[in-house]
Amino acid sequence: MRRTPTSSKKDRISTRKPGACAFPVNHIRICVWDMHVKGPGSSRQGCSMCDTFAVGEAATQTGSWIFAKNSDREPDEAQVVVSCPGKEYSRHQELRCTYINIPQAPETRGVVLCKPFWIWGAEMGINEKGVVMGNEALFTRSKPEKSPGLIGMDLVRLGLERADTARDAADVVTSLLMRYGQGGPCGYRDKKFAYMNSFLIMDRTEIVVMETMGRDYAIKCYQDFAAISNGTTIGRDWKKSSLPWGTDFQAFSDPLMTWFSGSRARRAYVMERISPSGNTFGVGDAFEILRGHRGGLPFKGLNHDVCMHAAEPFIRRSHTTGSLVVELDSSSGFRIFVTAGSSPCLTTFKPILPGNMPAGIDQGGFRYNEDSYWWRHEAFRIQAQMRLSQVQEPLLKEIREFEDGYCLTMPFSGWESRDSTLQSMSREAFFRSSALEASWLQALKGMAQDRRPLHNVFWKMTARRNGICLE
Predict the structure, then answer these.
(1) Helix ranges (DSSP H) in 234-370
(2) What residues are labeled active site?
(3) Confidence band, pLDDT 50/70/90 cuts, at residue 48
(4) Distance CA 139, CA 232 (A)
(5) pTM for the full model?
(6) Of 140, 262, 372, 445, which is least packed with CB atoms within 10 Å of its CB?
(7) 61 to 137, 189, 202, 283, 327: CA distances (angstroms)
């Protein structure tokens, strides 16, 4: 089932011609170019505004557990989808994470990870035992350590590789957190951007939310549903913490950065849609939440859209670069859906099998790469976004029809499934999605761009910097 959302300043202004832009276009170009040359690290705002939620078996159509996340990062940071088999390791082996080495575990679980191409860790993923996990930037009064440590994305991957349950994953994270701390740049181009982390972890029995501050943490467990969005959600009602009993974890929040992130509005949007109203929630509903925009076109105001669109270098700097939805049945079955591209409102979710991944979704890189599924989609997505008012509704209609055929009908399968029918269905879904975008790309050539000068200059320069031809 799918539920579709929905001389004085005054004198200077008065001399402007009707319909003229308040900013001269040349000034817009200078501002945007300054950001592109210097990088967006000149302010604390950063570019990482994600949304993660999970719904338990009591509220779903089939008694399953559903996890969903949008990864919002810098707009031209390619995100890849990789499948890594479980392995055994000899004693005293070292593991290189993003910035530091730590001892390798004797054994790791097989994992599917959605990750920025340059980072060892992951934004979100699932392991062969049915543990699903994602992290969020969390803005607190405690700042990351100056010496290198583990970043939140490292902790996601480590939790998935070393745990059999959601609580095990939380224990893995807390032990590593207390030993190594949180430290190191988390941004792609913005190397001044670092943050604390919150995590949402789900298995077939419960949902675990963990929020951190330095080497301290608080944990709360849920059976029904939960959502996190760049703000603290745990107060004094935690189940487990490194802090003294009764400590209010929300007291450590950085109110300015949390407000600027728009997390309260986004989490409220999600919570309103996942709160139980009978056992009717399905993966189609998760898709719709992840592509949700508050109000009209998603280019104005603060960061209040779950499906985030970067629009300029000042406020709207974060962009949804990848999305994941996972459904677990009550035994050992999985349904895993990824966009493998940015902006879920402009692309389809597609099914994947851990043992037979589609070509190109594991390829990223610093510039446009024809072998990369993410970059091929990006060439289409930028063109579509500059014409969004004309494209969005008719394209979404085709996307939903596509998902009805390739996602909602996809059966559960085992982690190591070699079912030829399912493998064919997954490959065909990626082929058909690419064909849909190619067809639309031809249609876009006859459409005028929407009149949003700053937005369009921003994306044209982003495309140019990354070798994407918009002609």
Answers:
(1) 255-261, 263-274, 283-290
(2) 50
(3) low
(4) 8
(5) 0.90
(6) 445
(7) 31, 42, 18, 9, 11
